[in-house]
């Protein structure tokens, strides 16, 4: 699907606040409701717009610790990797997981209530899958966090 300037404006408005009414979005992009709805539907059908969720305040809910976990492994077999990936998917503490090029094999963003909760997460993970080296970095301050794309 080709994206034009109006589509980009719609996407930017949705990224800013997807709870806005269709009327508000149409007004923000200088269009009317029906064409905006049709564009949104087409972008959903094309997979450009995914599921919609609500953003929660982690600290307000007691999840005060954010760790970035660097993992090195000496295991690279398909069976190990499938088990490792499933272990990550099964743990709600893991907000993000990336496989990397370079010295570090994986990086995880793990959100927990405190250091004790991180240790419980860590112990559970290493009891399930073998890893060569794990380094946990505690985020002292979140400076910027967004999932918005620079449209």
Automatic annotation (TrEMBL):
Alphabetical list of InterPro entries matching this protein: ArsR-like_HTH, AsnC-type_HTH_dom, Dimeric_a/b-barrel, Tscrpt_reg_AsnC-like, Tscrpt_reg_AsnC/Lrp_C, WH-like_DNA-bd_sf, WH_DNA-bd_sf
CDD domains, A to Z: HTH_ARSR (cd00090)
Keywords in alphabetical order: DNA-binding, Transcription, Transcription regulation
One GO MF term attached to the UniProt entry: sequence-specific DNA binding
Cellular component aspect of the GO annotation: cytosol
SUPFAM superfamilies named among the record's database cross-references: Dimeric alpha+beta barrel (SSF54909), Winged helix' DNA-binding domain (SSF46785)
Domain of life: Bacteria
Ranges for domain HTH asnC-type: 3-64
Transmembrane segments: none
Any single biological process term in GO: response to amino acid
PROSITE patterns: HTH_ASNC_2 (PS50956)
Protein's name in the database: DNA-binding transcriptional activator DecR
Organism in which the protein naturally occurs: Pseudoprimorskyibacter insulae
Biological classification of the source: Bacteria, Pseudomonadati, Pseudomonadota, Alphaproteobacteria, Rhodobacterales
Encoding gene per record: decR_2
